[in-house]
Structure formats: structure tokens, C-alpha cells
Design goal:
single chain, 3 strands, alpha+beta
């Protein structure tokens, strides 16, 4: 339940930031800058957040995602093996 409330609060916060950002840009007649922006091309992810630009290589992100997938797959196999052992012990009793 706490996770659902937290996700709702974060979504509400982002929506509020978006409304305030649009209102300020309309009042100041600034239409080229945004509070946050996410874009990508063939080699880089680009993130503009609170006035700062961040550029991250796709290869670095893809490598970390691949590593996470391997860890999760290994954990799932290990958990499955333990589950099978537990079930066979329960069935033999």
C-alpha cells in the first residue's frame, strides 16, 4: 500500500511540475526551454533537468541493463532450483 501511495505522490509531483513549468513559460514568453526534457538519438540519451543538461552513452546504459538481466536470470534459476528441491522434499514426506 505504501508503494502505491508513493507512486501516486511522485506522479502528482511530476504533473504539478509540468503545470507550473508551462505557466511560468507562458507568463515569461519563453518557449524554447523546459523544466525537464528527455530525448535520444543513435548514440546518446539526452536529459535536461532543472536547467542542467545530461548526456549519457547508450552503450553504457545497455551494458548495465544486460548485466542486470544476467543477474536476474541467474537468481531466477537459483530460486527455481531451490523451489524444486523443497517441493521434492515435501512430496517425499
Amino acid at each position: 500500500m505504501k508503494i502505491i501511495v508513493f507512486i501516486f505522490i511522485v506522479m502528482f509531483f511530476i504533473a504539478g511540475l509540468n503545470v507550473v513549468d508551462r505557466a511560468v513559460r507562458d507568463m515569461m514568453h519563453i518557449h524554447d526551454k523546459q523544466l525537464y526534457f528527455f530525448g535520444y538519438d543513435d548514440e546518446f540519451y539526452r536529459l535536461h533537468l532543472l536547467g542542467r543538461d545530461y548526456t549519457v552513452e547508450k552503450k553504457g546504459i545497455d551494458d548495465r541493463i544486460d548485466n542486470a538481466k544476467v543477474i536476474i536470470e541467474d537468481f531466477a534459476k537459483l530460486a527455481n532450483n531451490y523451489l524444486e528441491k523443497i517441493l521434492t522434499k515435501i512430496k517425499t514426506r
